[in-house]
Amino acid sequence: MKNQKLNAVLAPWMTAGSMFLLWEVACRAFKVPEMVLPAPTQIIASLIQYWPVIQTEALQTLFTTLIGFVLAIGFGVLLGVLVGASPRIYRAINPLLIGFNSIPKVAIVPVLVMWFGIGTVPAVLCAFLTAFFPIAVNVATGIAHLEPELADVLRSLGATKSVILKKVALPRALPYLFASLKVAITLAFVGSVVSEMVASNAGIGYLLLNASSSFRVPLVFAALIVVGVMGILMYGISDFIEHRSTSWAKRGE
């Protein structure tokens, strides 16, 4: 058992280390220009050199992403409960949700800029809009998929609709919620960075735009890696909370 846990912990690090090693060897063996694809050592050097700037911009992106993500959780859970508990609301709202989610969020950023100006607010709203849909859909699915037989038994015992929703449907929807959170947090980072690239004067997206315009390719990759690391950390936090909250829904936990 201990060996399995150790292998589970080491496997991602070994995979990442092997990938970066192959990347480094390939860049040196084929003499790939830095402007095309920098080697990992060049990226690390750029990360160290520009770390104060990267840290400042990364914290800005993390701030906007977390605010948008929290808003998405609040509104997504609320709408998911309404949609999942009522077939009528589901039929009325679901086509609108699908249509809205089909719109590229980068196309909405100029509208947000016209309304709120350049800065933090469009990035927060873009993160919210990007992360909102999977949370609402998964919560609604978890509530709507309550077994009819179980609902019939509860009603025969005198349980009202609100009691069934509160005591049974919502707890059973928790695995769906946490599954959506792990997807939504990564999408929130995408929305925030895209908004910062289009209309912002701070954040990783703004740094990426400036670095690419001045052909500092190692800095571009360094900023991308920082975003990836933040996404992995937030995903890990969501996964940890899921394991602590819904271990009853999994075998062998």
- Over the alpha carbons, how many angstroms does the gyration radius reach? 22 Å
Q: Architecture in CATH?
A: Orthogonal Bundle
Q: What is the number of strand segments?
A: 0
The residue-averaged pLDDT reads 86
Name the structural class: mainly alpha
Point out poorly predicted stretches: none
Number of domains: 1
Helical content stands at over 70%
- CATH fold type: MetI-like fold
Q: In the CATH hierarchy, what is the class?
A: Mainly Alpha
Series of H and E elements:
HHHHHHHHHHH
- Name of the CATH superfamily: MetI-like
Measured between the Cα atoms of the first and last residue, the distance is 13 Å
Number of H- or I-type helical stretches:
11
Q: Major beta sheet, specifics?
A: none
Percentage of β-strand residues: under 5%
